[in-house]
Design goal:
Number of helices: 13
Largest sheet: 8 strands, mixed
Number of domains: 2
Distance between the termini: 81 Å
Order of helices and strands: HHHEEEEEHEHHEEHEEEHEHEEHEHEHH
Oligomer: single chain
CATH class of the largest domain: Alpha Beta
Strand order of the largest sheet: 1-10-12-11-13-16-14-15
CATH topology of the largest domain: Aminopeptidase
CATH superfamily of the largest domain: Zn peptidases
Strand content: 15-25%
Radius of gyration: 24 Å
Length: about 450
Amino acid sequence: MRNTVRAAALSALLVSTAVSAAPPQGSGTAWDIVADLTTEIGQRLDGSPREAAARDWAVQRLNALGFKNVHIETFPIVGFVRGAETAQLTGPYPQQLHITALGNSVPTPKGGLTAEMVYFPSLDALKAAPAGSLNGKIAFIDNQMLPNQDGSGYGPYGNARRQGPAVAASKGAVGAVIRSAGTDHNRDPHTGGTNFPAGGQAIPSGAVSAPDADLIARIAAKGKPVTMQLVLEGHPQANMPSGNVIADLPGRDLSLPPVLVACHLDSWDLGTGAIDNAAGCGIVTAAALRAQQDGRPLRTIRVLWAGSEELGGFGGEAYAKAHANEPHALAMESDFGADRVWRVDFNLAPANKPLRDKVAAALAPMGIVVGERKAGGGTDVEPVIAAQKLAVIDLNQDGTRYFDLHHTPDDTLDKVDPVQLEQNVAVWAAVLTVVANEPGAIAGQGE
């Protein structure tokens, strides 16, 4: 009898532990979009069949939510098709590495590539290497990024990924490998796009996980020749289909330019794109709907779920071109995960100071501080902002953990905190309620 009681108690404890360890489950429009998009569609690599499926899914969901004029605007892109990817050090100490190809990488030769590896502690060190010094070699670029709240480290540290392979190629390298642009310490490498100039030499390019980058640095410090074998079979592919999904909540006065809110629908293919950027689509869509709860706003709120942001912002460029003759009032974008908003920045004309003050007053009870930066929007709205000199409001999210997950297999639904997601929706809805009911002209500061 005593053993039976103990077994029952142990069983109850295990069940309780399992329940408490389960990821939190949210509710509401934003959560449903993130959960359903990542579950029913999953990864949405630019130009892929899954990105196309996501566009169809988005049209159905936005129509069901009551949006009007829901439609897809297609455009072709040079996409990226991922292939087999492995890496190992073959000397002086054989070691397996965790690697992923960077977008726009060209493939290694059939059977892979084995060459001497040259270690560079930074992108600047690589830039200082003499011309021709990397002929026939693989460049490794170390470049450790540290976490911070505003995510500003991604600019300088991300340059090793954006520019490093092209710089290595210009020095004669036949391949390039970087420390992942991320702040985690696990063996998940971070993918992301790299850029080769028109007419320049493109080379196989990949990123290794942080522990593997540490390993490479320790081995390089021994002073012995290092050799690396790479197999990266991913490749660019021209004329792949992509597209934007656009939907409106019409305002009471259709003569007034609309407020544009944006996210991007595509994602990298290692995870399911929950943080980057299903969360953004959930936030802006739910907030737009909530802004009309107390009545139809004066201005139309237009939602843009952009395509092909990851490989170069193609969706934002396509939107700006297709809607060049349609005036817009103000643009906003959510593309920094799902953690809480803590700061607001503005780009409003001096005449719009009363509007700025109303937005700041609406956010003050939520603990949102006013920043000193000039708001810039994001990749999906920057082209239309620049073309029309639009007003911009940035709602800055806490980015402390964002680059632990960014472009990795760990970008999955369980990383979305439903409480913080809901805080985003509330903050965005408060701003949209103010700006979508502004009767006067709204403009940016310009240059």
